[in-house]
Specification:
Belongs to the ABC transporter superfamily. Keywords: ATP-binding, Nucleotide-binding. GO terms for molecular function: ATP binding. This is ATP-binding cassette domain-containing protein. With 238 residues, this protein is α/β, with parallel strands linked by helices. Helix content is 30%, strand content 26%. It has a six-stranded mixed sheet with strand order 6-7-8-3-9-10, sandwiched between helices. Strand 4 and strand 5 form a beta hairpin. The longest helix has 16 residues. It is globular, with a radius of gyration of 17 Å. The structure holds adenosine-5'-triphosphate.
Length: 238
């Protein structure tokens, strides 16, 4: 097995502990007419519980494609994705959906909030839709993200930072083992970005495995490890 990227700050590394996320030699091709794009060219990534990893790289380097494959929203053309030791890739869509609901929190570029629902209602709906096996207390979760006073506000009544934290609350509604986030601080000012990063670090400290795709130097600085993607491949640290 080729591990192009190994954890440097993972708890209990070198033991038999199962990684929260284990992607091995992922390939993904896209074909549009005669044109073929190799978006991922053998990407491997292992993330331990409690580790906060940033995937950095220029536009078009494959970050979003990688996150989609890690989430089981897209199927890699080659390689495998394991979540908590169970295979996610190359399973039927219902099985992938179940595994996603059970173990993965998603914060993608499109909002995961319904506009006509309050923050609390969004979290509770996410728990129902996910068939939460371990529903966390919505009020506690919302308060832990600093949104207690905004719990009954709708998304259009929230500031950018509050929106980011509300999206995070929905992503964490099912107490996932792994959080996958695509540019979660892309729209935020530096102060608000720092607050969101602090919340992510707190979550990692209690065992959440986090993979964030981001261009932001602040996100890279907050992470335990930065994986650089260039042209669909992991490159040695820049
Ligand atoms: N559905 C698709 N069909 C065809 N090509 C695609 C598709 N999705 C992604 N690609 C191509 O795959 C490559 C990687 O795209 P991807 O969106 O993963 O990059 P990225 O690093 O996330 O970029 P950005 O930082 O701009 O979001 C790009 O060349 C892109 O054009």
């Amino acid at each position: 097995m080729s591990m192009l990227s190994t954890p440097t700050s993972a708890p209990a590394s070198g033991t038999d502990q199962v990684a929260a996320l284990n992607a091995t030699t992922l390939y993904r091709f896209f074909r549009a007419g005669d044109e073929e794009t190799l978006a991922l060219k053998g990407v491997s990534l292992t993330v331990a519980a409690g580790e906060f990893v940033v995937v950095a790289g220029p536009s078009g380097s494959g970050k979003s494609t990688l996150l989609s494959c890690l989430a089981g929203l897209d199927e890699p053309d080659g390689g495998s994705v394991l979540v908590n030791g169970s295979r996610l890739s190359h399973q039927s869509e219902p099985r992938r959906a179940r595994a996603r609901a059970e173990s993965i929190g998603l914060l993608l570029q499109s909002s995961n909030l319904f506009d006509h629902l309050t923050v609390t209602q969004n979290v509770v709906l996410a728990q129902r839709l996910l068939g939460a096996s371990r529903p966390v207390d919505a009020s506690e979760l919302i308060a832990s993200l600093g949104l207690a006073t905004r719990a009954h506000a709708r998304p259009d009544e929230l500031s950018g930072g509050e929106l980011a934290r509300a999206g995070l609350a929905v992503a964490l509604a099912n107490d996932p083992a792994v959080l996958l986030a695509d540019e979660p601080t892309g729209e935020l000012d530096h102060v608000t970005e720092a607050q969101v990063l602090q919340l992510l670090s707190v979550r990692a400290a209690v065992g959440l495995a986090i993979v964030v795709a981001s261009h932001s130097p602040a996100v890279a600085a907050a992470a335990d490890r930065v994986v650089h993607l260039v042209d669909g491949k992991v490159t040695p640290d820049a």
